[in-house]
Design brief:
Strand content: 25-35%
Order of helices and strands: EHEEEEHEE
Distance between the termini: 39 Å
Helix content: 10-25%
Radius of gyration: 15 Å
Structural class: alpha/beta
Number of strands: 7
Number of helices: 2
Mean pLDDT: 91
Strand order of the largest sheet: 1-4-3-2
Shape: globular
Low-confidence stretches: none
Largest sheet: 4 strands, mixed
């Protein structure tokens, strides 16, 4: 079995794909449209974004609307990556359980995701 896609519900697939495209440098799938957009990685993994009417964003860490899934991204510099992602439209929840080890952010549709230090990256 090989994982080929991860798909996130959202209110605006093209907007959320644009956020992650700017953040990761992945290429927009050529068949992306207003109801479904995707980004393809070099290994063939597709990150998809599908329109859901009445979408309700996760309320992390509150479980009233649970996160259900989150993505982790390895970066060389947590501060630098956080600053870039906030500029691109991410939000930083007040609750940060990782201390200096990782950061929790939320994409423009409210999905929490984590930034971790890439293996071999040193602490500042």
């Amino acid at each position: 079995m090989k994982l080929t896609a991860i798909t996130l519900d959202c209110p605006d697939p093209l907007a959320l794909a644009a956020f992650y495209q700017q953040a990761t440098g992945l290429e927009l799938h050529e068949k992306s449209h207003g109801d479904f957009a995707g980004l393809r990685g070099g290994d063939g993994l597709l990150i998809g974004f599908q329109r859901v009417d009445g979408y309700r964003a996760p309320r992390w860490p509150d479980q009233a609307v649970p996160q259900q899934i989150h993505l982790d991204f390895a970066v060389d510099d947590l501060d630098e990556a956080e600053a870039l992602l906030l500029e691109l439209g991410a939000a930083k929840p007040e609750y940060q359980p990782g201390g200096d080890r990782w950061r929790v952010l939320a994409d423009p549709a409210g999905h929490p995701f984590c930034l971790t230090r890439r293996d071999g990256a040193t602490e500042d």
